[in-house]
Amino acid sequence: MNILKEAIKRVEKEVNKLSIEEIIKIDMYKFKNELMEYHIKEIQKEFKKLNK
Question: Which helix (H) or strand (E) is 23 found in, with range?
């Protein structure tokens, strides 16, 4: 599994859950970058658990 591709999928799912009001209030670029960083870390943790 490609970590970056999986992180992108997860970010897209979370962004799609946002309401119009939430989207208007946030800086979407910053939000997506922060989500991407979070999901990359989570996926790396998942890989570490699988490789033990």
Answer: helix 20-25
